[in-house]
Amino acid sequence: MLTNFYEQAEEMIRHTGDRITRGRVLVLGILLAEKKAISHHEIEEKLGDDSAINRVTLYRILEWLNKKDLAHKVISGDRKWRFRTNIYTGLHQHAHFKCSICAAVTCLSDVKAKYSSPLPPGYQSHEVELTVKGLCAECA
Amino acid sequence: MLTNFYEQAEEMIRHTGDRITRGRVLVLGILLAEKKAISHHEIEEKLGDDSAINRVTLYRILEWLNKKDLAHKVISGDRKWRFRTNIYTGLHQHAHFKCSICAAVTCLSDVKAKYSSPLPPGYQSHEVELTVKGLCAECA
DNA sequence: TATTTTGCGCAACTTAGTTGCATTTAATAT
DNA sequence: ATATTAAATGCAACTAAGTTGCGCAAAATA
Questions:
Q1: In the Cβ-directed half-sphere of B104, how many Cα atoms lie within 13 Å?
Q2: How far is the CA of B87 from the C1' of C2 (A)?
Q3: How far apart are CA B2 and CA B12, in angstroms?
Q4: What band does A139 get if pLDDT is binned at 50, 70 and 90?
Q5: CA/C1' separation B1–C15 (Å)
Q6: Residues of A in contact with B74 (CB under 8 A)
Q7: How many C-beta atoms lie closer than 10 Å to residue B35's C-beta?
Q8: Roughly what angle, to the nearest 10 degrees, separates helices A55-67 and A22-33?
Q9: Which range among A84-88, A98-102, B18-22, B32-36 shows the weakest confidence by mean pLDDT?
Q10: Which residues contact B134 (CB under 8 A, 6 or more apart)?
Q11: Nearest partner of B107 among B78, B140, B127, B83, judged by Cα
Q12: Contact A20, A14 (CB under 8 A)
């Protein structure tokens, strides 16, 4: 059923007006099929040997997806970036859960980030990222 | 006036029961003097040539400070860790501000992180980290 | 002052991400 | 269908951040 995701990916890419390339379709398809944020390395693994994409190209595809708002970068503490499509999440004010054991990052789509006090004078908020750390259901 | 911070640092380190070493006092002193979270590299710069500490040792000191709850790690998107003493902030539920231009990370001590909905079933929350991204007063 | 345990420095390594440039390829114009 | 061209890809080499193992140095204690 991954085919559907690839078709969906192609449609989303077409919509940007930029080129529809093998790499972009493959990567976005994988991200669409995935429910959680995954790392560069995990994407490489899912691509497999036959449909392998160059390391650098993969970085550039992810960067492009991010720029086109088709995916967003999830920041975690292990100096790895993770990516996730943002078709289901609002662009701003979404929250992430990071498991302290398995390091998996999950988007908490129902959880809205809030902060109780105003920012210091002169500061401007563009985006709020909330990370809840703890144990996921698997590791608890 | 930095001397005071070093004395304070020494006292805090003594309190842990572990060894009071030159490196630990220097690094914690610098962190105490600093109001915002600073990176490994910035700490090295502040140490200067005369009181230089080995790169690896500095990592290990920061790790130790973190373990002893004398400092905490601030995660940002540039794959650099930043450290800040947590004598003034509560251990949990503190928020950070990251400037999109100068990349400076500031602790927002007055801002409490909140999330509106419960976690998925089976999940356990240990720590909540909230990062507000935008422009700081300097760069706005 | 000697002993022991802990922390430090060095060198070498890993992993994640970056840059420049030559080659290929998707879109388009012919 | 084919040529053109701008954009995307692949390669190689690099940087920056963080890690590991081990011998040596220095705090704490006796």
A1: 14
A2: 39
A3: 15
A4: low
A5: 41
A6: none
A7: 12
A8: 70
A9: A98-102
A10: A119, A123, A124, A125, A126, A127, B97, B99, B100
A11: B83
A12: yes
